[in-house]
Automatic annotation (TrEMBL):
It comes from the Bacteria. This is Ribbon-helix-helix protein CopG domain-containing protein. Residues 4-40 form the Ribbon-helix-helix protein CopG domain. Transmembrane segments: none annotated. One of its GO terms (biological process) is regulation of DNA-templated transcription.
Length: 72
């Protein structure tokens, strides 16, 4: 089931959003839905990572992971 949510955004963001819709051949709603899904996923990921860090004897940062993949 879908519901409508009304939001307000600054004019500059709307201009950028409209430009992207033309470039990608999609709709504002589609981009906003995808952005919200990404945000919610990242938020859940951070919450899970926080729980794991509390239980881990060694804390790895994102920089540790991406700069030293071979040494882990």
């Amino acid at each position: 089931m879908r519901e409508t949510v009304t939001i307000s955004i600054p004019e500059e963001i709307k201009k950028q959003l409209d430009k992207i819709t033309v470039q990608e051949g999609t709709t504002r709603s589609s981009i906003i839905r995808e952005s919200l899904r990404d945000y919610l996923f990242i938020r859940q990921f951070r919450a899970l990572r926080k729980k794991m860090i509390e239980k881990s004897p060694r804390v790895y940062t994102d920089q540790d992971i991406f700069s030293n993949e071979d040494s882990l």
